[in-house]
From TrEMBL:
<dbReference type="GO" id="GO:0005783">
    <property type="term" value="C:endoplasmic reticulum"/>
</dbReference>
<dbReference type="InterPro" id="IPR009486">
    <property type="entry name" value="Pur_nuclsid_perm"/>
</dbReference>
<dbReference type="Pfam" id="PF06516">
    <property type="entry name" value="NUP"/>
</dbReference>
<protein>
    <submittedName>
        <fullName>Purine nucleoside permease</fullName>
    </submittedName>
</protein>
<comment type="function">
    <text>Nucleoside permease that transports adenosine and guanosine.</text>
</comment>
<dbReference type="GO" id="GO:0055085">
    <property type="term" value="P:transmembrane transport"/>
</dbReference>
<comment type="similarity">
    <text>Belongs to the NUP family.</text>
</comment>
<keyword id="KW-0732">Signal</keyword>
<keyword id="KW-0813">Transport</keyword>
<feature type="signal peptide">
    <location>
        <begin position="1"/>
        <end position="25"/>
    </location>
</feature>
Amino acid sequence: MVRPTLLVGALASLALSLFTRATLAAHHPASEPISPKVMIITGFTPEREIWYPYNLTNDYPMPGFIPTYQNVSCTASDEICVMTMGQAEIGNGIAMTLLWSSPMFNLTETYFLIAGIGGVNPRYSTIGGVALARYVVQVEMGMAFAGSDLPANFSDLYFFPSFVTSPNQYPSLAGTEVYGLNGALRDKVASLVAEKNISFADNPTAQAYRSKYTYAPARAAPTVDKCDVASAEVYWSGEVYARNVEYYVDLISNGTAKYCNTNEDDTGTMAGLLRGAMLGKLDFSRIVIAKGNSDFDRPPPGLSAYQNLMEVAQNGFEICLQNLFAVGSTFINDLVANWHSTYKHGVKTQNYVGDVCGYLGGTPDFGPGHC
Ligand SMILES: *[C@@H]1O[C@H](CO)[C@@H](O)[C@H](O)[C@H]1NC(C)=O
Ligand SMILES: *[C@@H]1O[C@H](CO)[C@@H](O)[C@H](O)[C@H]1NC(C)=O
Ligand SMILES: *[C@@H]1O[C@H](CO)[C@@H](O)[C@H](O)[C@H]1NC(C)=O
Ligand SMILES: *[C@@H]1O[C@H](CO)[C@@H](O)[C@H](O)[C@H]1NC(C)=O
Ligand SMILES: *[C@@H]1O[C@H](CO)[C@@H](O)[C@H](O)[C@H]1NC(C)=O
Ligand SMILES: *[C@@H]1O[C@H](CO)[C@@H](O)[C@H](O)[C@H]1NC(C)=O
């Protein structure tokens, strides 16, 4: 999940202040909006600064963005931009909406690379790895009982989807529960990474922690995995909570989504993007989600859920950021180099792209097909 330790945060701020940044504060004239080829969407300082090797010399202060991350920062050509939203779904939805409603940008052909870090489900991936998602699921919409209040016949399944009487019933929808992305674009990014034969960063502490698990995805060396995102504001740790989330993700997505990365951000970003797409301000089939896996969402045998979250240094944070940059920059460099031949007119997909309500048209492969 996206909370670094205080120490890492402090080091990151120090590192940030050491960067000297040539800047242009000038507002673009409204008559000439900026049309980046890619907008990289980040959540906080360590995620933002991995992109500084692109030399982000053009700063555009965005009205309404939080002061710490006021600027959308772009390369001299304005082809590659980075925005930072702060954390959590609500703020992200608002920041995205401010972005696409701003006259400063024309995002109709822009690709959005949602690039952050999060927790990892050891059944599908491992710390240091990078998830390329096709589905994004919001986890916390629902009703809950805990501890001795739990009806006895529900064992550890305590999370009830909205307005149903049993965890196995499909709930009534708010609309932000599931998003489907362009699978062809996701697969293209995965193939670019495979072709480039990137060597993924790793470290001995992460290796040792992985080796405590008894099953394969957790124990494997970090790489790119095609698996999905589950967002919730709750930063859980442990088998019981994780099993509830797996159950819910399976139910709400009709078995299409397999979450490997968990974070507090992405469904907010998706909700903002969806509304922009509904108004023709951006193209929902140009979204790539790449998420670095910083820490396991449940412990290996022999450790408690508390130890997993609070005590053990898993050391996935730095390596997953490095690997996220390796994956993201592979995509970005291809995007810029092959813009006209491959990307300008979009990457065609066979699958449904949009939200659970079908607000962009088409027939979702999850949910009831309408809201
Ligand atoms: C935004 O960019 C301007 C111009 O480069 C710079 O002076 C300012 O410090 C930046 N703000 C933040 C929060 O980075
Ligand atoms: C960024 O600027 C540095 C120093 O001028 C240069 O060496 C590097 O190649 C530039 N990187 C990119 C991606 O343009
Ligand atoms: C935005 O860019 C598209 C594609 O280049 C163009 O067709 C459209 O007119 C532009 N919109 C505005 C408001 O500049
Ligand atoms: C579980 O118990 C509740 C409360 O007693 C009851 O209403 C419900 O039907 C039971 N559900 C199942 C699946 O047995
Ligand atoms: C990929 O890189 C590894 C080292 O990182 C090397 O052993 C392997 O031969 C490379 N494979 C290809 C197909 O280039
Ligand atoms: C998803 O599951 C629900 C409940 O079982 C069902 O009503 C709905 O038709 C299913 N949707 C799809 C696309 O299979």
